[in-house]
Amino acid sequence: MPKILLLGGHGKVALKLTILLTARGHHVTSIIRNPEHTSEIQSLSPLVTPVLSSIEEATATSAEALMEGCDWVVWSAGAGGKGGKERTKAVDEDAAKKFIAAAIRSPDVKKFLMVSASCARRAPASWYDEEDVKAYNAVYSTITAYCEAKIAADEFLYAESRKTKKPDWEDICLRPGTLKDEPGTGKVNLGRAKATGGISREDVARVAVVLLEHGGAAGLWLDLVRGEEEIEAAVERCVTERVTARE
Fold first, then answer.
1. What is the pLDDT of residue 42?
2. Residue 45: CB atoms within 10 Å
3. pLDDT for 230-245, tens place per residue?
4. Do residues 217 and 211 make contact, with C-beta atoms less than 8 angstroms apart?
5. pLDDT for position 4
6. d(CA 17, CA 23)
7. Which residues share a beta bridge with 4?
8. pTM for this structure?
9. 223: CB partners within 8 A, 6+ apart
10. Which whole number is the average pLDDT over 72-101?
11. Given pLDDT bands bounded at 50, 70 and 90, which one contains residue 99?
């Protein structure tokens, strides 16, 4: 069973991911910054190991060391709007790039799943309708620094992944819309999705697990909001048809 390094382990999506992954038998190493969160992480499952480490202060060497023995890496970290534009760039772009590069260098890691955001694009998507364009512009103008940082990280993941000679490398970019704390429905709009509608954190975690276990999603950017398609069917469609939101 693949072992997983989960970056940003105390985030809301990451906590749900931990529960789902360990329930399926995966061992999860959860990277957290605050020692007060250790017992909470440990209480989720006997298959999770919390590790105290600052993602923001990591070096190239320390980032790669965290990945020893891990098969998959999931980035679910972020500044969360704390610390202003400088910290947003430091975590959501610079640290993300550092861990992406480390994962590609690592002889152990075979997959990297980035939990990004659908607003991480340089212009409204070509398939957006008027309502979507308006929603995208409103979000981008409100949290520009975050969008720019996520765009840079997503593009770096894609570009560096195309350069690697690792035969079994898989880069996946999952890009949810507005995150909600409501219960998941198990039904989504995945791939070239709308900008409106939002998505529960529970369903984001569910989609991430299915993508990781399904395989074959290398290079795909998958936007995600609530919809009418079952998660397993949506992932199968996107992987089989090579659906991507990257333009």
1. 97
2. 17
3. 999 999 999 999 999 9
4. yes
5. 98
6. 10
7. 28, 72
8. 0.96
9. 118, 125, 175, 176, 177, 190, 191, 192, 193, 245
10. 92
11. very high
3-state secondary structure of 70: coil
Long-range contacts of range 207-211, CB-CB < 8 Å, 24 or more positions apart? 207/174, 207/231, 207/234, 207/235, 208/13, 208/17, 208/74, 208/113, 208/115, 208/174, 209/17, 209/20, 209/21, 209/24, 210/235, 211/113, 211/172, 211/174, 211/235
What type of residue sits at position 196? Answer: T
Q: What token pair was written down for 92?
A: 């959501």
For the record, the structure tokens of 47 come out as: 């298959």
Tokens of 8: 């940003």
Task: Give CA–CA dist 188/237, Å, rounded.
Answer: 12
What tokens does 30 get? 């959860």
Q: What angle do CA 40, 208, 2 make, to 5 degrees?
A: 75
Q: How far apart are CA 126 and CA 106, in angstroms?
A: 36
